[in-house]
Amino acid sequence: MGERAKGCCPPMDLMRSEPMQLVQLIIPIESAHLAVSYLGELGLVQFKDLNVEKSPFQRTYAIQIKRCGEMARKLRFFWDQMSKAGLQPAERSVTQTALSFDDLEVKLGDLEAELVEINANGQKLQLSYSELVEYKLVLQKAGEFFHSGLSSAEAYQREIASGQIGEETLETPLLSEKETATDSKQVNVGFITGLVPREKSMGFERILFRATRGNVFLRQTAVDEPVIDPVSGEKVEKNVFVVFFSGERAKNKILKICEAFGANRYGFNEDLGKQSQMITEVSARLSELKTTIDAGLIHRGNLLQTIAEQFEQWNLLARKEKAIYHTLNMLSIDVSKKCLVAEGWSPVYATSQIQDELHRATHDSNSQVDAIFQVLHTREMPPTYFRTNKFTTAYQEIVDAYGVAKYQEANPGVFTIVTFPFLFAVMFGDWGHGICLLLASSYFLIREKKLSSQKLGDIMEMTFGGRYVIFLMSIFSIYTGLIYNEFFSVPFELFAPSAYVCRDPHCRDATTMGLIKSGETYPFGLDPAWHGSRTELPFLNSLKMKMSILLGVSQMNLGIVMSYFNALFFKNNINTWFQVIPQMIFLNSLFGYLSVLIIIKWCTGSQADLYHVMIYMFLSPTDEISEENQLFEGQTTTQLVLLLLAFVSVPWMLLPKPFLLKRQHNRHQGESYAPLPDGEESLLAEPNHDSHGHEEFEFGEVFVHQLIHTIEFVLGAVSNTASYLRLWALSLAHSELSSVFYERVLLLAWGYNNIFILIIGGLVFVFATVGVLLLMETLSAFLHALRLHWVEFQNKFYEGDGYKFSPFSFALLDYDEE
Hints:
Layout: E1 20-28, H1 29-42, E2 46-47, H2 62-84, H3 101-162, H4 177-182, E3 189-197, H5 201-211, E4 217-222, E5 227-228, E6 235-236, E7 238-246, H6 248-260, E8 264-266, H7 272-328, E9 332-333, E10 339-347, H8 351-364, E11 372-376, H9 393-402, H10 413-427, H11 431-446, H12 448-452, H13 458-465, H14 467-484, E12 500-501, E13 516-517, H15 536-569, H16 573-604, H17 610-619, H18 635-654, H19 656-670, H20 699-723, H21 726-750, H22 755-793
Antiparallel strand pairs: 1-10, 1-11, 2-10, 3-7, 3-8, 4-7, 5-6, 9-10, 12-13
Helix pairs in contact: 1-7, 1-8, 2-3, 2-7, 3-7, 5-6, 9-10, 10-14, 10-21, 10-22, 11-14, 15-16, 15-20, 15-21, 16-18, 16-19, 16-20, 19-20, 21-22
């Protein structure tokens, strides 16, 4: 939502969604448009569609919606024209004067008509200009044909007169003058001139020859530069041609072939004097047309520049008007057709703000009657609304991707802010890689204002939206990297010297016999001496596996605790006593006990085998525990009690709840007859959304559902705990991959003492680190952390069957919305 004045809203609370209310607004017709407009600027009312049974064409403001669509079409036309002209809309100015809907419609219509007329005139002028350019080329090139032919004929006549006839050429007449004089039949030879696309010239010549059986004479010459085709408007390489023929049939065939090949024909005069006169006239007309076209382009550019300066304002106004009329169509009109009745959801804290906006609309529209605001009482489930900021939005979207919280349900997003980046960091622990992520997220944070106003690609948009998630992930990765003591898999003595020393000065047996502890325990994180030792992998496996179990059991317990707070908030005592408590007992009797054993073993340094302890807790619960596996006094008795509690908790979860729900239903059914409410409240109840009212209680269905829920929890307690071992597996994989890249690429290249190999090895190391560890591993750890939250954590308490609060707000209008 947009920023609101200080003191108008209660402090932000992400734990529970905002208290919502169903409100009814009775707005006079004359102030309805302005009231909806002001509520759109406020953005705190989600209107309900009260005209569901009506088609879009039967609604009150269907004509206005159509007008808005027509305005949007005109704006898209302007956008296309500006894009072709290389213009960008200017940024919206606050000082620009606002136009009314009718004024904007008239203005857009006038501008469209003017622009269409300019485009049409420009196209006609450009067509004439292109035709004249081609005509001039025909006059020039064809004139050269006739001029060269005339020159050849005159030269031949001179040779005949002098009696010196040279060798015959292609231009030598086939018949002598005597032969032509004795021929009694007169032949009329005609010709056609024009331009044909160069790529079609060979086919054009071939078809002419075949269609006329060779009874044509074709001359072609290439035009030096491409010309604009009058038909397509594109630049095309063309040839000027002259076709000589005899007879009307040949002429008709040639004309059809020219039409088929897209050849443009132009008239031509054989008289050389008239040819030069035509070239002069065409050149003059071309000059005049060029001046006219340039003036038209300048006028068109000025008009588009004027449109571009106000395009954003007009576009926003058109989309606002369309949204307003679309909302008005959701309102029902009363019998007298003087008022519109609206119903919708709004936060309780927004009551005074909504009333103020309604009063302002009444005042500004000079209406004599004020709008009526009243709260309706309903059993319908309200929408879920969490007020988030730019920091918490990404975390809330992670939760909403699983399912929107039920109204007033405990929100996992509060804990996700910390637990999500922390669990990610457990799998991604390397403070060198964490610094790389920190630099990447810092870039987005520093350029936040600039990037938020730009259109980014899909991947960049997603990354930018999660910049605060990546930032916290990098901070936690640096923290866990310091605990693991890994900087690109290299350990450092950051906080103190190592507590271990080698057995001999050369450390020859460091990886075989091991090291000797000689100093104080390393104060923070893993002692660097563990890296590279023979016990590194067993030690790290044991450490990370046990740590994963502790983190998993803690988060699952947190989920059950949140289930308790949900039951407490909704005053559901059945869930408290017959769901929360047995679940807590079952989980902690087994895996809570395992977590305690892990902590005791760490604190005492015991060599007990916890696998053996947990297995024989089930197989032989009454047998005495061996001395090496005993961690505290009375361990056998404790295990027996915990095992009995775990077995008791299963029927505790399964059996009582269905019977109690049936008893509760029967009691409510006996109380179903009650006095009618006063006033109009009897009309406000919505029995369709009543989950208890008069619905028939299916005991078998409820019992089967509870059976499934119980089995799911019992099996899930085991599988979910095992699922948290992915923290250990991915952490180990990340560490080993980082170690392989460092030792097998960078150190190997360093050992050759060759600058060329060193550069190649360094580049391979950088690309492998960025591509595999910083991109693929980041995505992998992100998805696994997502699964742990959605499945292992949220299924303990989160129903996620609500629907999101989607208010009517101008701030949410999409720029690309049509």
